[in-house]
Give the backbone structure.
Amino acid sequence: MDKIEILKQFRELAAKDDIVLAFTSAMTEFSAAIEQEDVNVNDIVAIVERDPLLTASLLKLANSSYFGFTKKVSTVKHSVSVIGLKSLKEVFTASVFKSAFIKKNDDYIDQLWKHSLGTAVAAQVICRKWNKDLCHDAFIAGLLHDLGSFLIHQYFPHLASTITNIVDNDPNKRLLIAERKVLGLKHTEVGAFFTKEWLFPSHICNAIKHHHYLDTNQGDKQFCAIIMIANNFAKAMELGASENIFVEPIPRWIWTLLGIEVKDLTELVKEIQENYLATLAYIE
């Protein structure tokens, strides 16, 4: 298939998809409210309260031991003050993403969702050790890194099935090659295309596009490296299941770029596991 033509088909299908339109509308409205210089908390509370599942997740998080608040948090407004706006953005994105793309009684998609959440948590843990200012963006990029896979399964299920069969019968599990052969482009390109269309920051779009391959000249390469490593942590730790179960070899220069050494791995795994289980508890 021609790459430009297939992206055109993706765009046309997404434009007719009420659920995806609701996702993009919610993200746009929330981002506009939260990124104002003088944030109006009441506007944000109103957006959150329209979604009962999001409200429940937020209250569950605010009352968790992570924040150590002694009194019960019972309102959205109080929850926002407890967890902060940046953490709220993570909860909001995860909740609306799950509502839009995760279908009941579909174990494959459920496992891919849990892998995405695992990658988000791993990315945030790794990023805190490199650049704390970007750790919330790292969570968002990790959560959305396989957006293209969700969209391929949603809009072209017959082609997705063909890709899965090819990968299952390939001893080297070369997912990207199978996608190119069947679809004409990779899930990384689909995800980057849509996040750019939806006006996500460029470093998040780049990380989604390059989470399987990164060269030394790539822009935002440190941020991209975080998502690449996080994706493989999630696979190695079996947090959900990716379409490509193989843990990819990561060049030494990428580990060096982030200052991660062998002695750091045990502590990273422990922190990722603990944070993943906590995050899964309030998102689910």
Summary: The chain has a mean pLDDT of 90. Residues 96 and 138 are 17 Å apart (CA to CA).
